[in-house]
Amino acid sequence: MTTLTHPGDALSRSSRVLYVVVLGALVALGPFTIDLYLPAFPVVAEEFAGSETLIQLTLTATMIGFGLGQLVVGPWSDTVGRRLPLILATTVHVGASLGVAFSPDITWLLVFRVLQGVGASGGGVVAMATVRDLFGGQPLVRMLSRLALVTSLAPILAPVIGSQLLVLLDWRGLFLALAAYGVLVLVLASTLITETLPPERRRVRGHSTMAQRYRAVLSDRVFIGVALIAGLMFSGLFAYLSASSFLFQDVYGFDAQQYGILFAVNSIGLALSSQVASRLMRRFAPARILAVSLPIMALAGVTAAAAAALDLGLGPVVVGTFVFLSCAGLSFPCIQVTALAPHGAEAGTAAALLGAINFGVASLSAPLIGIFGTESAIPMGLVMAGALTLATLLLWIVVRPLRARRIDDESAELAVAAH
Prior knowledge:
Blueprint: H1 13-35, H2 41-47, H3 52-80, H4 83-101, H5 106-134, H6 137-168, H7 171-192, H8 210-218, H9 221-251, H10 256-280, H11 286-309, H12 314-340, H13 347-362, H14 365-372, H15 378-399
Helix pairs in contact: 1-3, 1-5, 1-6, 1-7, 2-3, 3-4, 3-5, 3-13, 3-14, 4-5, 4-7, 5-6, 5-13, 6-10, 6-12, 9-12, 9-13, 9-14, 9-15, 10-12, 11-12, 11-15
Protein name: Putative multidrug resistance transporter, Bcr/CflA family protein
GO molecular function: xenobiotic transmembrane transporter activity
Pfam families: MFS_1
């Protein structure tokens, strides 16, 4: 059997590290855009005299923009290459960040938050597609695990950093900092990332038009299943993120810095588990790992809700969310590998659909929390538990983990599960 080779196999170790750093910065742009100002929610609500539900809609608006932007940037990058869509989208992000910083009212804030999401979408899509352009097999697993670390960790670290910046800046200053970060990412990507999709690879027979690329991805039952599962996981994650600022500061009496420390503690488990995933995928099919992690996440959500309902105090709520986030770190690399490995010819489109479904489904959770309130952890825990219970059912009905194949270097171009 002939071993498959990929362009990234020729990269030196230092070059791979450089790609991880720069692509990680691109991936982090989206989560930082969404979550950096979570600790400032109460302050923004006070300045604009808005309800918690209305302020949480600014989170939803960004996720909607992020999802829609990916649907444009991903297929476009399969057609014209990775660099141009990335540069233009990131430029939009910088402009929108400045717009948010100077928004005179909540309406303009919502408009610019949507545009911020659209602009930030370029980084995540292009980073994922670039990795798939360069790697296959176990190298693909390792690289996606590194990016999944950023994907999982950035939403947790963003409020930590935001809470510390609030010591020095007001909430508008957070968005000036985001604009500066966007400029930095734009410079790094423009100077250090080469084009990974040369013209001759942009027109593959049967995959050359946007319609053909979408058809190839959307006809993949396993892709659809894991994308919906990822969306439900993000729903649980964003239920926590959208509720936690009000819950821990207003209900449990944390200040902004203590709230940030709590996120830092949660990030430890998430970071470690995301790297454990790449090692586990050497021995087990990604879908079989999900068969263990998803039910545990559902149980963690039940634990948080039950602890609040029975008035058991802060401890069980913190433990439940820590377990939930740790299992999320374990699961995200498995989802990305399962979704992208069979779709090298339309990597941008696959990455775009994965991200759009993720954030499209997840955008429903923030309003749910707003509707049911943040006076206790019960709504948050129930959304987490319900989303992951549904994700577990989808795994067994659609993805069918018992038929899944292990990823190895010689089967990278095959579907990772039986179709």
